Amino acid sequence: MTDLFTRLISSSVAKKAGVPQPTRLRRYQPGVALCEGPVLVAGGGRFEGGLTDWLATLAIATQAQSDDSADRLGGVVIDLSAATDPTDLDQLRVIGAPAIKRLAKNGRLVVIGTDPATLTDLAEVSTQRALEGAVRSIAKELRAGATANLVLAQGDSSGGVRSAVEFFLSGRSAYVDGQVVRVGESTATNPDALRPLSGKVAVVTGAARGIGAEIATVLARDGATVVAVDIPSAGDALAEVANKIGGTALQVDVTAPDAGRRIVEHATGRHGSIDIVVHNAGITRDKLLVNMDESRWQSVIDVNLGSILRMSAAILADGGMADGGRIVCVASIAGIAGNRGQSNYGASKAGVIGLVGALSNELRERGITVNAVAPGFIETAMTARIPFTTREIGRRMNSLQQGGRPVDVAETIAWFAQPGSAAVTGQVLRICGQSLLGA
Ligand code: NAD
């Protein structure tokens, strides 16, 4: 979708007048190289060797800090997981400064640290916590579609780190910038790199249009059999989505008391299991709190939060989701930063973030991961209804200077859903191009 403003500023007149152009972001294509150009791996942390070996298996050329080359870099991975003292932080500058100068358009900087929550030594904790401030700042300095993100390891095993580094280097993370992901211990990998969700059954709510339709499409592209769920009045569009991706359609209002039971019956009855659930259905009913009526308040809380609580109980009961399953919720940056006129919506999405934290702990033993995406400004029918000026501010005020696309949300969800992401749980990942709104 190209908006009017983008068409205006990308016109030949605007280009001649020197108006800055948002960079066309590099997005994931199955089978295309992980990144465009060699990857510099440095920093001396405990994952550096394993990552270099793994990149070699993908036929990605790697460079060491000492390599004297003028090649444009597709990515830079700085492993500071072993940094213990604030003086070690200078490595970010020593390695990062020359590398960033060589970074290609749409290049990637990925920094690896150790989760400060797993440490006790004061100097070590503060050193590792410092990485977050540095990476978020560097992300704001990068240009031409390049991003910077931080992976915090909670243990020594490389599986989780590798999965997160792969996501951040790839085009799947095109609109994820200045973010932090914590990864636990795991040796899980994807059995099939091109179709990582092969053999999995995924339920996607709100799948008739917008972000939900794109999530269904991307999960199917990655090999999943998809049950597309939406309200009966969206039945035609829902059937179209389901038919296009070879899935099945289920007309159900997620707020219905028996919605969870009907989803379980449909998915297990037709396809044999439920491996992935994406709670995407959501509504907005914006008003300042002083003008908010009961129905606006209650409907948003019930569709966006209450329904997820009720459906989870049914889906996680015996006969529902298999151990090793994946639950992904669609939250919003409004649930993190708040938004004027959205106290109901902000409450519902912050509630979802709370649910993800608590449920991920509860389900750890069953190997079920629970994560959320928090989209910023994504080009959909929902955001097309925002008044022009507010819409343009939301769309441009981020490090990538453009709105995201539904596919950007879908790709992150597809990554959370992968078998290889077993070590990623309890995370809320913002997909907002490092929006200036909120943290
Ligand atoms: P959308 O309005 O285009 O699509 C939402 C879908 O959910 C529709 O198909 C709708 O019929 C369905 N739905 C609504 N109520 C339902 C119910 N009770 N039962 C079943 N299905 C129901 O919205 P979108 O922009 O694609 O948003 C999808 C999700 O992303 C929502 O949770 C939204 O809050 C979130 N989100 C969107 C943005 C954005 O910029 N578009 C930003 C942050 C978060």
Can you tell me the CATH topology of the largest domain? Rossmann fold
List SSEs in N-to-C order: HHEHEEHEHEHEEHEHEHEHEHHEHHHE
CATH architecture descriptor text of the largest domain: 3-Layer(aba) Sandwich
Largest sheet: 7 strands, parallel
The level-1 CATH class of the largest domain: Alpha Beta
Helical amount among residues, as a percent range? 25-40%
Radius of gyration over alpha carbons?
Answer: 21 Å
Instruction: Count every helix, treating DSSP H or I runs of 4 or more residues as helices.
Output: 15
**What general form does the structure show?**
globular
| Class computed from helices, strands and strand pairing | alpha/beta
Poorly predicted sequence stretches spanning 5 or more consecutive residues:
none
Question: What molecules are bound to this protein?
Answer: nicotinamide-adenine-dinucleotide
Beta fraction of the residues? 15-25%
How is this structure best summarized?
With 439 residues, the chain is an alpha/beta fold. It is built from 15 helices and 13 strands.
Show the helix and strand layout:
Layout: H1 4-9, H2 12-16, E1 39-42, H3 48-57, E2 62-63, E3 73-79, H4 90-101, E4 103-114, H5 122-141, E5 147-153, H6 158-169, E6 180-183, E7 201-205, H7 210-221, E8 225-230, H8 235-244, E9 248-251, H9 259-271, E10 274-279, H10 294-316, E11 321-330, H11 334-337, H12 343-363, E12 369-375, H13 381-384, H14 388-396, H15 406-417, E13 428-431
Parallel strand pairs: 1-2, 1-3, 3-4, 4-5, 5-6, 7-8, 7-10, 8-9, 10-11, 11-12, 12-13
This protein binds nicotinamide-adenine-dinucleotide.
